[in-house]
């Protein structure tokens, strides 16, 4: 099973032929700019299309802290997103309180464990909206 950096490497090398379809859901590669290093940081994330945008969840498995990639995009919301062979520049933003309930349902439909992760932490797990620029 692909995981972490190996997942990123195989996904990019094969334009998602390896790594897009993963454990019954779909994965994209999000590349942020490291808020301290300034270097590109790529992370494989479960995603779903949502209108003209895409959604990802900053769950960090229910950890107390937001994942590093989320903190990076809070500092610099201009990112790169790759779905299979389609790599594009995008703007990332956190879903508004009004948007969040429907978006959460969309994401838990593809990865039900998000509901479990939410019970493990006191923080509200952010949903990130990825909009092509």
TrEMBL record:
A GO CC term assigned to this protein in UniProt: plasma membrane
Tree of life domain: Bacteria
Organism: Microbispora rosea
Catalytic activity: oxidized coenzyme F420-(gamma-L-Glu)(n) + a quinol + H(+) = reduced coenzyme F420-(gamma-L-Glu)(n) + a quinone
Short name of one Pfam family: F420H2_quin_red
Molecular functions (GO terms): coenzyme F420 binding; oxidoreductase activity
Protein name stated in the entry: Deazaflavin-dependent oxidoreductase, nitroreductase family
Signal peptide (UniProt feature, chain positions): none
Family: Belongs to the F420H(2)-dependent quinone reductase family.
